[in-house]
Specification:
Elements lengths: L1 E5 L1 H11 L4 E4 L6 H13 L5 E4 L3 H12 L6 E4 L1 H6 L1 H9 L5 E6 L13 H4 L7 E4 L3 H16 L7 E6 L8 E5 L2 H7 L25 H33 L6 E4 L6 E5 L4 H13 L4 E6 L1 E3 L3 H8 L4 E6 L9 H10 L8 E6 L9 H17 L6 E2 L3 H23 L1
Parallel strand pairs: 2-3, 4-5, 5-7, 6-7, 10-11, 10-13, 13-14, 14-15
Antiparallel strand pairs: 1-8, 6-12, 9-11
Helix pairs in contact: 1-2, 1-7, 3-5
Length: 414
């Protein structure tokens, strides 16, 4: 094992290399491109056997990934933001094919307006597709999770593709010390992809047609994929335990940080949860019993693990780095449905939208979230969902609007 300073993108590339992927269909998009560039250099130099092919679009890229995985080839690819949306037709299709491969998504806010920085609306748009989803917070997690994802995807009880998500810029281009395991250790943990699972083989030519089915057979096959996703909860627990035994790092479906005696718990996904960890420590030093629950495995949703961690808490503050227009935070709605009807679930569930388009979430805002959640507990009712936004930010926007209006009036008066 070696210790290297890697970006999140570099860690994703190393995960694919150690997993011994055979084929990488690719299409570049910021902030994912570094992953493909790194793999391309390794393929070209001979450090990594296999083949990388640049295709004309993300739609073709996912089609090629699914087709190759169906032949028994271990496949890796990556995308981001608009690229994931452009591929969405095939995202649903290859999950229906039950083609197991790993797709890294480097989260980036969606247009319009356009941004290159991160939020989670892109990856959450794929949550109902049939892909499993794992969300990372550190570069080490990215490398480890790519390797674990192949065990999860290729397991006979699962046979579904997996999205491994990391946040653009805040993680994709952040360098952190990463333990890179040896190829031999990873091979022992992750054996070669079993060719017996392949649906197609060059030595046994076959054809397969996907018919337009009626509602009854369609329902059957969709529900079979749903059951496979649910079974993957147990598969994931086994994989996490075996990974810990092999590499002394454990990645549970939910990371619970200082939650045992907590009264109020932050709930988040992604790399901004590391900021919440620091805030938890500061609040603890000030005498507040606060904890953090960070969901890693978003699909399938770990309902029982979440209920266990939150049992007996007084308040839960959900911080969504996304916005479902006309509804609110996606994670808030998911958590509310998971806790509904539980007698010992937190009595108060507050909702905050923050970090859209890469906007920072400050420690002061996290402290304010705790104060507002505590007040909601005292009042006995949750406030309406809130967007994290400061008066200073609003003043700057108003200034820009005033400048734009003045310029428009000046142009019209000419």
């Amino acid at each position: 094992m070696t210790r290297e300073l890697l970006t999140g993108n570099g860690a994703a590339a190393w995960g694919a290399r150690l997993a011994r992927v055979d084929y990488v269909p690719a299409f570049p998009i910021t902030p994912q491109t570094e992953i493909i560039e790194t793999l391309g250099r390794w393929f070209e130099s001979g450090e990594m056997p296999g083949r990388l092919v640049t295709l004309e679009s993300e739609h073709s890229m996912i089609t090629a990934a699914g087709a190759a995985a169906a032949t028994g080839v271990r496949v890796f690819t990556a995308t981001s933001s608009q690229g994931l949306l452009y591929a969405m037709e095939m995202i649903y299709a290859v999950a229906g094919w039950r083609a197991p491969f790993v797709l890294v998504n480097v989260s980036r806010g969606l247009g319009t307006p356009t941004t290159l920085e991160s939020d989670h609306n892109d990856v959450l748009a794929a949550r109902d597709s049939g892909f499993l989803q794992i969300h990372c917070a550190t570069c080490q997690e990215v490398l480890d999770t790519v390797i674990m994802a192949y065990r999860l995807a290729e397991d006979r009880r699962t046979r579904l593709p997996v999205i491994v998500n990391l946040d653009g810029f805040s993680l994709s281009f952040t360098r952190e010390p990463v333990e890179v395991p040896t190829r031999e250790a990873v091979r022992e943990f992750l054996p070669p992809y079993d060719p017996q699972q392949a649906r197609f083989r060059a030595s046994e030519p076959t054809s397969q047609g996907v018919a337009v089915l009626g509602g009854s057979p369609y329902s059957y096959f969709r529900y079979e994929a749903h059951l496979a996703a649910l079974r993957s909860l147990d598969v994931y627990a086994e994989v996490a335990a075996e990974f810990e035994a092999a590499f002394s790092r454990r990645h549970d479906s939910i990371e619970a940080y200082r939650c045992d005696d907590a009264e109020i718990v932050f709930l988040m996904i992604g790399s901004f949860a590391t900021k919440a960890k620091a805030a938890v420590d500061q609040l603890r030093n000030a005498g507040s019993r606060v904890g953090l629950a960070r969901i890693r495995l978003l699909r399938p949703f770990p309902v029982e693990d979440l209920r266990s961690i939150l049992r007996g808490k007084r308040g839960l503050a959900v911080i969504d780095q996304n916005l479902s227009m006309g509804k609110g935070g996606v994670l808030h709605a998911e958590v509310a449905s998971a806790l509904y009807g539980e007698a010992d679930a937190p009595a108060i569930l507050t909702s905050f939208i923050g970090g859209l388009g890469g906007r920072d979430i400050s420690p002061e805002e996290l402290y304010q979230i705790v104060a507002e959640t505590r007040k909601a507990i005292e009042d006995g009712r949750a406030p309406t969902p809130r967007l994290l936004y400061t008066r200073g930010e609003l003043r700057e926007i108003r200034k820009l609007q005033a400048i734009a209006e003045a310029e428009e009036q000046d142009w019209e008066s000419r």
